[in-house]
Amino acid sequence: MTDLTLGRGQVDRERLLRLLQEYGVYAGVAVLLLFNFVFTSNFVSTENFRTQAVQVAPVLIVALGMALAIGTEGIDLAVGSVMALSTSLLSLYLGYGLWMAMLMAVVGGIAVGLANGSLIAFLGVQPIVATLALMVAARGIALVLLPQLEDVRDPGMATLGSGDVLGVPYLVLIAAGLALLVAFVVRRTTFGRQLLAVGDSRPAARLAGLPVRRVLIVVYACSGALAAVAGILATARLTASDPTSLGNLMELSAITAVVVGGTPLSGGRIRIGGTVAGAVLIQLLTTTLIKHDLQPSWTQMAQAVVIIAAVYAARERGKR
């Protein structure tokens, strides 16, 4: 085998890995859609597409916050617990009005995010350790505030969970609006450029005079706020507050959506479009397995395989 042949094989492998990272998530969505069109009964219907879109909305919103954290070379494991905390606060404050209840739920999420960001920025705690501690603490606080499931009987919440505009559910519109907002912040604002610089090299960002600590605190506060919004929307859809189960393993789904969407765990880059496609991929994967009578545990294993494949592709590209 000649050097030319070896070199050509190396180039082809690099090109394949690059295409896999850039467009693999979109190909995955297309393959799952095609599979379900052919082999899944009653998949092609307006009601089914509406259901899929509504179910993916909270995952997408949480994944947007996770993408910001990963963009700084961090991670936020507390997002699922923040959802639980937000549903507890929402239920407690509904007696003061819907807007007050939603405000307190978001404030609770921001508070957890500020705690995460402060531990990371000021004390130098590793993001995985800091957010793991807050994951346990936030879930515990949520259960203290609301020990058991409680029905949510509020007309405004019912409208938020089931209402629509021209057939498009409110939940989907909110998720789409937040995705556009986060994309704008990342690509078009000074804060977005600072965020990516911090993720690319924190020491270099400090030497350049960037407000590294402030960026980290704001990023985790935003992640907490987005997780709280997701908790509110999930509560509205379910018409019940259940801090015991709401948000369980949401961090896994969010990380999967971000990583398979092409955002590297090494930071310095965020792909919002890929994150949206990643969230859709996770929802389609879950739906496919459920509709073909496979246990939910298979979904978790499938997500793990997808994460490993995405991280491997990114790692191989990083070597070159």
UniProtKB/TrEMBL annotation:
Residue spans crossing the bilayer:
23-44, 56-84, 96-115, 127-146, 166-186, 215-234, 296-314
Q: How does it sit in the membrane?
A: Multi-pass membrane protein
Can you name one GO molecular function term for this protein? transmembrane transporter activity
| Keywords annotated in UniProt | Cell membrane, Membrane, Transmembrane, Transmembrane helix
Entry keyword annotation includes Magnesium: no
Compartments annotated for it: namely: Cell membrane
- A GO CC term attached to the entry: plasma membrane
Which superkingdom is the protein from? Bacteria
Q: Does the keyword Membrane apply?
A: yes
Name under which the protein is recorded: Sugar ABC transporter permease
Q: Which organism is this protein's natural source?
A: Streptomyces aurantiacus
Q: Which gene encodes it?
A: rbsC
